[in-house]
Design goal:
homodimer; two-stranded antiparallel sheet
Chain lengths: ~280, ~280
C-alpha cells in the first residue's frame, strides 16, 4: 500500500505546471516518509471489510496536509530544523520563501484532491469539513500556537503539554481514522475513533520526546536535541524517561481496549499500532 | 454591504478558541481592507437579479484567502513589507512564526467556511473546486513562484510579467466573479467572467506598479518604493508610466465590452469597475 501511496502522490503532482515551488513541494512530499496516517486509514478501511483502495484519494490529501505542516514547522522562524525524513529540510534546499509557498501549496492541494476525487458530493463535503476543522484554528494550528507560546517559558503543567500534543499530532491521526469511518458509512464509530486518534498523537509525541532526548541525529533522520536547543517545553519537563515510557504503554493499552469495542473484521490496525508501539525511531 | 462583510468576518472568528495565532489572524482579517473581491462578487449577484446576501459565505471565504495571501506575502522571506492596510504588517506585530501560522489558519478557515455554509452540497463542492484550483499550484501560488524566480533577475519579457499578474491577482478576482455565476446557476457565463477577472487582476497590478513608483507611503497605507528596494521586476521595466496607464485603460475597456455580452439586470459591477479604474491608491 505504501508503494501505491508514493506512486499516487507523484501522479498528483503531474497536473501542475512546472515551477520552483512545485519542485520544492515535490521534494518534501516524495521524501521517504513513513506514511503513517495514510496507512492507518487504509488499514482501518480493510478492517471494516472494505477494499482499502476506497481510501486512496483521502489518504493522499492527508499526506499532503501532513507534509505542509512539516515544511512550515521546520522553517527558521518555527522549529528551525535542518533535517527531515532523512534529508535536508525544505528551506535548506529551496530557501524560506519557496518553503512558505510550498507548504501553503500542499495545504491547498489537499482540498483540491478531496473534491476532485471520485467520492460522491456528500462524502466530499464531510471530508472537507473534517480536514479543515482538524487542521485549523481549533485543531492542529491551535496546537502549534500553544507550542509557540510555551517557547522559552517555564513549563506550566503536564496537562497543557498533553493538550498541545493532542492538537498538534492527534488531530491528523483522528482525521485518518474518522475518514475511514466516513468512507465505509460508520458514522457512529467516529467519536471512538477520534479518541483513539488523539491518544495515538499523545503517545507518538511522548515517544518522540524520549527519542529526541536519547538518540543520535543519524538514527532518526532529523536533528535531535533540537527541543533542548530551542528551549522547548516537552513532557519530559514533568516526567522521567521511565515515567514517559510507562505513560506511552498505558496509552497504547487504552487504544487497544477502545479498538476492541469497534466491530472490526481484521487486525490490521491492531498490528500497525503494535508496530508503532515498538518503533525505535 | 462592506459593513456586513466586516461584521460577518468578526463573527466567524468567534467560533475559535482564543490563541496568539487567532489574535494574529484577526488582526489582519479585520484590518480596514477595501474588500474588493467580496464586493465584486456581491455586486455581480445583484446584477444577476438575485439577493446579494446569497453570496455572503463565499465572500467571507474569499476574503479569508485574500488575507492569507497578504500575510504570507509581507513576510521577511517574501516581500518584507512593514505596512499593510494602513497598519504594521502582521509579522511586525506578532512575529514571523505567528504570521506563518496565521496565514495558513486563514487559508484553512476559507475552506471550513465554504463547507459550513448553507449552500447545498453540489454548490459547496463546486466552490471548493474553484477556490482550491485558483489559489493553488496552477493559480495564485504559481504566480507567486514566478514572482520569486524573477527577483534579482533581468526582466525577461512583458508577457511573463503579465502572466504573473494574471495568476497572482487575476485568479482570486476570477474566483469572485465565477462564484457569483455558480451561486445563481449561470454556468455558461463562467468562462467570460474568468477572462474579466484576469483582466481586472492585470489592470490592478499595473496600477499598483504606477502607484508604487509615484506615490508616498502615507497615501497608500503600505510601504512604497518596495518593488525597487526588492529589485522586483515589474511591468514598468518594459513600459513608461504613460504606456502603463494606457494599457490599464484599454484593459478596462475590454472588461466593459465583455460585461456587456452578459445579460445583466443592473450596473453595480460596471460602477465598481469605474470606481476601481479611477482609484488613486
Amino acid at each position: 500500500m505504501k508503494k501505491l501511496i508514493n506512486e499516487q502522490l507523484q501522479e498528483i503532482l503531474t497536473q501542475y505546471e512546472p515551477s520552483k515551488v512545485l519542485e520544492s513541494a515535490s521534494y518534501s512530499l516524495l521524501a521517504p516518509g513513513k506514511r503513517v496516517r495514510p496507512l492507518l486509514m487504509l488499514a482501518l478501511i480493510k478492517d471494516y471489510g472494505h477494499d482499502p483502495y476506497l481510501g486512496t484519494d483521502a489518504a493522499l490529501a492527508l499526506e499532503l496536509i501532513q507534509t505542509y505542516s512539516i515544511v512550515h514547522d521546520d522553517l527558521p522562524a518555527m522549529d528551525d530544523d535542518d533535517y527531515r525524513r532523512g534529508q535536508l529540510s525544505n528551506h535548506k534546499v529551496f530557501g524560506e520563501a519557496n518553503a512558505v509557498l510550498a507548504g501553503s501549496a500542499l495545504l491547498t492541494a489537499a482540498f483540491e484532491t478531496l473534491v476532485s476525487s471520485t467520492y460522491n458530493n456528500d462524502i466530499k463535503v464531510k471530508l472537507v469539513e473534517l480536514f479543515s476543522r482538524q487542521a485549523g484554528l481549533n485543531g492542529m494550528i491551535l496546537g502549534q500556537s500553544i507550542d509557540l507560546e510555551l517557547e522559552n517559558k517555564e513549563a506550566e503543567s503536564l496537562d497543557l503539554i498533553l493538550k498541545m500534543y493532542d492538537l498538534k499530532t492527534g488531530c491528523l491521526l483522528a482525521t485518518a481514522l474518522e475518514t475511514a469511518a466516513i468512507l465505509v458509512n460508520k458514522e457512529s464509530d467516529r467519536e471512538t475513533l477520534r479518541s483513539i486518534g488523539y491518544k495515538c498523537g499523545r503517545a507518538f509525541q511522548i515517544q518522540d520526546d524520549v527519542f529526541d532526548a536519547t538518540k543520535e541525529t543519524e538514527e532518526l533522520g532529523k536533528t535531535t536535541g533540537s527541543d533542548v536547543d530551542n528551549k522547548k517545553v516537552t513532557a519530559l519537563d514533568f516526567l522521567s524517561i521511565d515515567e514517559a515510557n510507562e505513560l506511552v504503554a498505558s496509552l497504547y493499552q487504552e487504544i487497544r481496549n477502545e479498538l476492541q469495542v469497534l466491530n472490526l473484521n481484521n487486525s490490521e490496525i491492531y498490528n500497525m499500532i503494535e508496530y508503532l508501539m515498538n518503533r525505535q525511531t
